[in-house]
Design brief:
Blueprint: E1 4-8, E2 11-15, H1 17-40, H2 58-73, H3 77-88, H4 93-100, H5 104-123
Antiparallel strand pairs: 1-2
Helix pairs in contact: 4-5
């Protein structure tokens, strides 16, 4: 049987398989959650939004801001709340679903519909 170790106060401590799994499970779960989120996340560039850190000329930035403002105004209050929570406040779909009392699957479906509307807005 393979020996398992966890680090406590900088020192490796030999533990049983059960203790090792219990100790590592939260980290494994978080890594899996991040991977799944990364796989399903849509980049803002796909919707014509500038990436953070890039500095477009002032006019382009102003036009982009005005277009984004107009796009957000065209959404319903619920849709704006959803986009604000997920993209500006940094909530996950699961956290937002718990906050408003619906299933995460429904939040994802709503997000996809809203992103589709925004994509049409920016393409047109």
């Amino acid at each position: 049987m393979e020996k398992r170790y966890i680090t406590i106060d900088g020192q490796p401590v030999e533990v049983s398989e059960d203790v090792y799994r219990a100790f590592k499970r939260p980290a494994w779960t978080e890594r899996k959650r991040r991977q799944v989120r990364k796989d399903y996340e849509v980049s803002l560039e796909a919707y014509g939004v500038e990436a953070a850190g890039e500095t477009p000329p002032f006019e382009d930035s102003l036009i982009g801001s005005l277009m984004l403002e107009q796009a957000l105004v065209s959404l319903t209050d619920d849709e704006r709340d959803l986009i604000g929570a997920l993209f500006f406040d940094g909530l996950t779909e699961r956290e937002y679903a718990a906050k408003i009392g619906i299933a995460q699957k429904n939040v994802n479906a709503r997000k996809q519909r809203v992103l589709g509307k925004l994509k049409i807005f920016f393409a047109g």
